[in-house]
Amino acid sequence: MNNQLKIPDAETRARNVANWRETIRKIDALTLSLDELIAMVEEHNRRSPLTYRLNKYKYPVTSEGTKELD
């Protein structure tokens, strides 16, 4: 049995490196898009009247300031 690893030639290695770089570039672009989407959803949630009402009851304002309900 011959289980020795064969080192690919320079052309194959260069092609593989180029493919990996392109894949990584696409993953980075997707990650950036997802980060932007998350930021948009968080901003929407902050401005949502429902979120405002829920937070208003979660942290009632007292004479001593804002306190979290136990």
Concise overview:
This protein has 70 residues and is mainly alpha-helical. It is built from 2 helices and 2 strands; from the N terminus they run H-H-E-E.
Give an overview in words.
It is a single chain. This protein has 70 residues and is mostly helical. 69% of the residues lie in helices and 6% in strands. It contains two helices and two strands; from the N terminus they run ααββ. Strands 1-2 form a two-stranded antiparallel sheet. Strand 1 and strand 2 (65-66) form a beta hairpin. The chain is rod-shaped, with a radius of gyration of 26 Å. The relative contact order is 0.06.
How are the secondary structure elements laid out?
Elements: H1 10-47, H2 49-58, E1 61-62, E2 65-66
Antiparallel strand pairs: 1-2
Distance between the ends? 69 Å
If helices are DSSP runs of H or I spanning 4 or more residues, what is the number of helices?
A: 2
Could you tell me the strand content as a percent range?
A: 5-15%
Q: Per the principal axes of the C-alpha atoms, what is the gross shape? A: rod-shaped
SSE order: HHEE
Q: Structural class of the secondary elements?
A: mainly alpha
Key structural traits:
single chain, two-stranded antiparallel ribbon, 2 helices, 6% strand
